[in-house]
Design goal:
The protein is of the alpha+beta class and 234 residues long. The protein folds into two domains: 117 residues, Trna Endonuclease, Chain: A, domain 1; 89 residues, no CATH class. Helices cover 22% and strands 39% of the residues. The chain has a five-stranded antiparallel sheet, with no helix packed on it. It has a five-stranded mixed sheet with strand order 2-3-4-5-6, with helices on both faces. A hairpin with a 2-residue loop joins strand 3 and strand 4. The longest helix has 14 residues. Bound molecules: zinc ion (2 copies). The site of one zinc ion (ZN) has 9 residues, from loops.
Length: 234
């Protein structure tokens, strides 16, 4: 393949690790809900719901609500997802605690990718709030279907859908996901623009609905944008 430098093809290569920016809080919130859904547990998980405020009656938005019905008791656990760039502080802990109180939850859990400052951790511990660290990578694994899968070609190893790129093209973000089998080098390409998902054997290439060419050679999975004369390795 004729490879150009990334700079020649697209001015802005935003990130190499696709999850870092592209996971929006809504997706993180969804992943947190899934995490609790997938746990072996009792009760019912509700995602992104509103519960009336105990005083004002106004609807309060709750990321994840875990309800357990026991004998004559109903236990509500409020789970708040916080996707952040820096550690949570005392104010965050207090806000979640206040929200839990407003919706009459019996317990609150904060799920975050970053962790807490020391004072915030002390505060959470004091008020009996649980903290769970859930990284962006873990969140992605939870919501990206088939993140790990058996290689359809050799059936001997896994393909991990971990190579992705995102680019800004004419103001639009293009996002691709792919992976290769560590044993036989068969690749899977997944165009996030058109949804085309295909297995590509080594030294073969395919075209997605958008007209982008996706190929697989000794050096890796490559992509040539529709209309571009040069491509790049994902
Ligand atoms: Zn394989
Ligand atoms: Zn496409």
């Amino acid at each position: 393949m004729n490879t150009g430098t990334l700079g020649e093809i697209n001015k802005t290569k935003i990130i190499l690790f696709w999850g870092a920016i592209f996971m929006k809080w809504q997706e993180y919130q969804n992943a947190v809900g899934e995490l609790y859904n997938q746990m072996d547990q009792i009760g019912e998980i509700k995602k992104n719901i509103t519960i009336p405020d105990k005083i004002t009656g106004q609807p309060r938005q709750v990321d994840v609500y875990w309800e357990i019905n026991g004998k004559n008791h109903r236990i509500g656990i409020l789970i708040d997802a916080k996707l952040r760039k820096s550690k949570l502080d005392v104010k965050d802990v207090e806000e979640v605690f206040a929200l839990a109180d407003s919706v009459k939850a019996n317990k609150a859990i904060i799920v975050t990718n970053t962790g807490l400052t020391e004072p915030a951790r002390k505060k959470a511990e004091f008020i009996g709030m649980d903290i769970k660290i859930f990284s962006i990578e873990e969140a992605l694994e939870t919501i990206v279907e088939d993140y790990w899968q058996l290689c359809p070609s050799c059936e001997n190893d896994c393909i991990i859908m971990d190579s992705g790129s995102s680019f800004m093209i004419d103001g639009l973000i293009f996002w691709s996901i792919g992976g290769r089998c560590r044993t036989c080098k068969t690749a899977i390409s997944w165009c996030q623009e058109c949804g085309h998902y295909e297995t590509i054997e080594i030294n073969k290439h395919i075209e997605c609905t958008c007209g982008h060419k996706w190929g697989n050679d000794e050096n890796g999975l490559w992509l040539i944008f529709n209309g571009a004369d040069k491509g790049f390795y994902l």
